[in-house]
Specification:
single chain; alpha/beta; 7-stranded mixed beta sheet; 8 helices; elongated
Length: 307
């Protein structure tokens, strides 16, 4: 099939490569414009732009799929549009332009977790079975007919960044299967069934951990917020980012009265919670670089209280 691809971040790149590897003709790639990155704010092409250049594919950089994108897409005469985390909505007349319309690879088992942050919100809710869904794009948010889906289990405490990277590769199978089914006429899609939920966009305040909650909930919240927007607690009224944590075996030190206390135990920074404990492996104090959790705690005299 002649395919128009739209995507931007790193976890859209495996889908682009999979479509090309499956033998389809990618006639064009739409991605967002170069963005300033790093402390020096250097204008940098998106990961999809770089991959498309490597593959020798024509690219349009646009921050919205408006008239210019529609005109460019019309000239390509694509059979199918494929969108994976582009960062903008496909509306008419672009939506109806390809002969087979548009399909989207979404990182949840729709209709659960429609919206901007499905993996993050699923992990935050304590879910470990995470899915992917390929569906027909319609004007309503993530509401089109399902073509293919798949799911896999993740260990508790898997951070969202790692889960997304895994699902980005895992989901290519469902995406290629959907394209194949549309090409040979074996797939038409089925309406979504079940209760819908919405994955709201993440903000900085979402990352704050409530250390009065059970260990399982704190770890789930940390996982959903890592690496972005970043999980943190407060120390001395300043945010302390928790870049890496893991479930500790020192649950004998746990207790509701001591929740939030961090102590050095066998050279490790152990955070007490009401019913368990977490090891603070890597942390970042306000205004400083990330560092080993135990080194940070030794600098506080070997104990601290987080809130």
């Amino acid at each position: 099939m002649r395919i128009l691809f739209a995507g931007t971040p790193e976890f859209a790149v495996p889908s682009l490569r999979a479509v090309v590897s499956a033998g389809h003709e990618v006639v064009g790639v739409i991605t967002r414009e170069d963005a300033p990155l790093g402390r020096k704010r250097v204008l940098t092409p998106s990961p999809v732009a770089l991959a498309a250049e490597e593959l020798g594919l024509p690219v349009l950089k646009a921050n919205r799929l408006g008239a210019d994108a529609t005109e460019w897409a019309a000239s390509l005469e694509a059979d199918l549009g494929v969108i994976v985390a582009y960062g903008g909505l496909v509306r008419e007349p672009l939506l109806s332009l390809p002969a087979h319309g548009w399909i989207n690879l979404h990182f949840s088992e729709l209709p659960r977790w429609r919206g901007a942050a499905p993996v993050q919100r699923a992990l935050e809710a304590g879910e470990q079975n995470l899915g992917v869904t390929v569906f027909r794009l319609v004007e309503a948010l993530d509401a089109g007919d399902v073509l293919t889906r798949d799911a896999r289990e993740f260990p508790a405490g898997t951070p969202a960044g790692a889960a997304l990277a895994d699902l980005a590769e895992f989901g290519t199978g469902a995406l290629v299967a959907a394209i194949t089914g549309l090409a040979d006429g074996s797939l038409s899609g089925e309406p979504q069934a079940g209760e819908a939920s919405y994955a709201h966009k993440l903000g900085r305040e979402d990352g704050r951990l409530d250390l009065s909650r059970p260990t399982r909930e704190v770890l789930a919240k940390w996982a959903g917020m890592t690496p972005e927007p970043g999980a943190y607690a407060h120390y001395d009224e300043q945010p302390l980012k928790l870049h890496e944590v893991r479930r500790a075996a020192d649950d004998a030190a746990a207790g509701a009265d001591g929740a939030g206390t961090v102590e050095l135990i066998d050279g490790r920074a152990i955070l007490r919670l009401a019913d368990g404990s977490l090891e603070l492996v890597r942390v970042q104090p306000a205004g400083k670089a990330a560092m080993d959790g135990a080194a940070w705690l030794r600098g506080r005299g070997g104990s601290a209280v987080l809130a």
